[in-house]
Design brief:
The chain has 341 residues and is of the alpha/beta class. The protein has helices spanning 8-20, 32-42, 60-69, 75-83, 89-99, 113-125, 128-139, 176-180, 200-208, 219-223, 230-238, 261-271, 290-299, 320-333; strands at 25-30, 48-53, 144-147, 154-160, 170-174, 185-192, 211-214, 242-246, 279-283, 303-307. The strands form two sheets. A seven-stranded parallel β-sheet has the order 3-2-1-7-8-9-10, sandwiched between helices. The protein has a three-stranded antiparallel β-sheet with strand order 5-4-6. α2 links the parallel β1 (25-30) and β2. α2 crosses α14 (320-333) and α4 packs antiparallel against α5. The longest helix is centred in the C-terminal third of the chain and has 14 residues, at 320-333. The termini are far apart.
């Protein structure tokens, strides 16, 4: 087996950036594959990166560990750590290892290696933040991963027409995994408990940031939940950081079926009416009505940036290089020029 070596050019470039102070402090909020896409892009343009991750997942391996052990759901935290792994042999090997899922006929079936590693360190250290920092050091992660709250949360949604036989009635749908795939029209979401404590390090990171990135991702189950943690919302409203909202490439079957880009902004504004944004980033091919999107963004205080950020395969996945280029241009061109320039 060949020895693990980090790419000299990548390390050299990052050391040069650090010496010059030529990098913004960026905090990315979200969960699941949307946050992973953002992190894979952002780590290409800054070495000062923090992910703040939702902790309401109740499905799959995460849900089983949460129910059995009473821990935070580790799955979205694991995905964020994997996205922050470098492109060298060490980083890519560890990214594959922690994402590996066991296949068996027993109880370990479906569990991800990274989930078990994270939970083991939580039990050993008794501190979720310290444990995640240790996993990040093991992986050589190019950034830090934090949970948005230190207590497991339940996501609940008010859904009109959840039962097709009662299209005008509103029902309460419980659980992130269920909300993400719910039929009907999601009216609003809330957390249980409804006043969860934010992780102090997450609040501090938002207040100390140059830029905060929200999205892309499952709108009601990964993006909006951050705005339902009061201390985190206060930090987002009070920070001097510029804020960019990254839109999805397509509506998500279930929770945002049939949503236009501007409707995504409207529901976000209803959940956090006092939150102002600076930039809304969207793929130019995914916006059929640019004027309506610009109007919706303006109501949130934001300008719209259109850029080609979709992958070449035609799927609703962001290309990390194109997304990195879009973020870099936004950081350079919008608002104040930060201390990294």
């Amino acid at each position: 087996m060949k020895p693990y070596r980090r790419r000299a050019s990548t390390l050299s470039a990052r050391r040069t950036l650090r010496r010059r102070g030529a990098q913004p402090k960026v905090v990315a909020l979200g969960g699941g594959m949307g946050l992973s896409a953002s992190l894979a892009a952002l780590r290409r343009i800054t070495g000062d990166l923090t992910a703040v991750v939702t902790v309401a997942d109740d499905g799959g391996s995460s849900g089983r560990l949460r129910e059995e052990l009473g821990v935070l759901p580790p799955g979205d935290l694991r995905k964020a750590l994997a996205a922050l792994c470098g492109d060298d042999d060490w980083g890519q090997t560890w990214a594959r290892v922690i994402q590996h899922r066991f296949q068996s006929k027993g109880e370990i079936n479906g569990h991800a290696v990274g989930n078990l590693l994270i939970v083991a360190l939580w039990e050993q250290l008794g501190d979720p933040v310290q444990a995640l920092d240790l996993v990040g050091r093991l992986l050589g992660a190019q950034g830090r991963v934090l949970p948005m709250s230190a207590v497991p949360l339940e996501l609940q949604a008010l859904v009109k027409g959840h039962d097709p036989e009662r299209p005008d009635e509103v029902d309460t749908v419980r659980g992130q995994a269920t909300v993400a795939l719910t039929p009907g029209d999601v009216q609003s979401v809330h957390l249980v408990p409804n006043d969860p404590p934010a992780v102090p390090e997450a609040v501090e990171a938002v207040l100390d940031a140059d830029w905060v990135v929200l999205g892309p991702g499952s709108w009601f189950s990964s993006v909006i939940p951050h705005l339902l943690v009061p201390q985190l919302l206060d930090a987002l409203a009070g920070t001097k950081a510029r804020k960019v909202l990254s839109l999805n490439l397509a509506p998500q079957p279930g929770e945002t079926e049939g949503f236009s880009p501007q409707r995504h902004l409207e529901v976000l504004g209803r959940h956090a009416p006092k939150l102002a944004l600076d930039v809304v980033l969207a793929d130019e091919a995914a916006v059929p009505d640019r004027e309506s999107l610009a109007d919706a963004a303006k109501r949130l205080g934001a300008a719209v940036e259109l850029a080609p950020v979709a992958g070449p395969d035609g799927s609703a996945k962001h290309d990390p290089e194109l997304l990195a280029a879009a973020y870099d241009r936004i950081f350079r061109m919008h608002g104040r020029i930060g201390p990294w320039r």
